Amino acid sequence: MGSYQKVVVGTDGSDTSFRAVDRAGALAGDSGAELVIVCAYEPASREEVDAAADTLKDEAYQVVGSAPAETTLRDAAARARSAGATKIDTLALEGNPVDVLGHAVSEREADLLVVGNVGLNTLSGRILGSVPQSVARRSGVDVLIVHTT
């Protein structure tokens, strides 16, 4: 099997998800693959926006819509570049992480999906399922689950 051509990695902005981005960036850099960094988000409720407006004043725009995801993606792209990736695209999509990652893999015709292992070995992860477990089951491509904890 040849090297990967298009790699999708998911991040939520956490330190552990950034470790998965680091690994995906290094892998993409080593193989010359395009790296697509994906962040799923749920829009803020009206109450959350109002509370942010009261607290953040002029900075409240940072919690509306995809703004937090866009910030996460900017930080993740910088990390991936530092890890060796040269062809990077970012994608913020509304929805739950499992569906968003599946959509990104399909839409971008990726041949590898990279996720962190958070939740994989927890009690709630075993009972309710976790993002890495769910994407590994549903994905039609290779999945790399990075040990991030």
Would you write up a description of this structure?
- This protein has helices spanning 15-31, 46-56, 67-83, 97-107, 123-128, 131-138, and strands at 6-10, 34-41, 87-94, 112-116, 142-146.
- Helix 1 packs across helix 3 and helix 4 runs parallel beside helix 6 (131-138).
- The protein starts with 5 loop residues before the first strand and ends with a strand.
- With 149 residues, the chain is of the alpha/beta class.
- Helices cover 47% and strands 21% of the residues.
- The longest helix is centred in the first third of the chain and has 17 residues, at 15-31.
- The chain has a 5-stranded parallel β-sheet with strand order 3-2-1-4-5, with helices on both faces.
- Mean pLDDT is 81; it is low at 59-64 and 120-129.
- Helix 1 links the parallel strand 1 (6-10) and strand 2.
- The protein has a single domain (6-146), classed as Rossmann fold (3-Layer(aba) Sandwich), CATH 3.40.50.620.
Q: Fraction of residues in helices?
A: 40-55%
What's the N-to-C terminus distance?
30 Å
CATH architecture identity:
3-Layer(aba) Sandwich
Q: Specify the number of helices.
A: 6
Short characterization:
With 149 residues, this protein is α/β, with parallel strands linked by helices.
Provide the fold topology:
Layout: E1 6-10, H1 15-31, E2 34-41, H2 46-56, H3 67-83, E3 87-94, H4 97-107, E4 112-116, H5 123-128, H6 131-138, E5 142-146
Parallel strand pairs: 1-2, 1-4, 2-3, 4-5
Helix pairs in contact: 1-3, 4-6
List the defining traits of the structure above.
5 strands, globular, five-stranded parallel beta sheet, Rossmann fold, single chain, alpha/beta, 149 residues, 6 helices, 21% strand
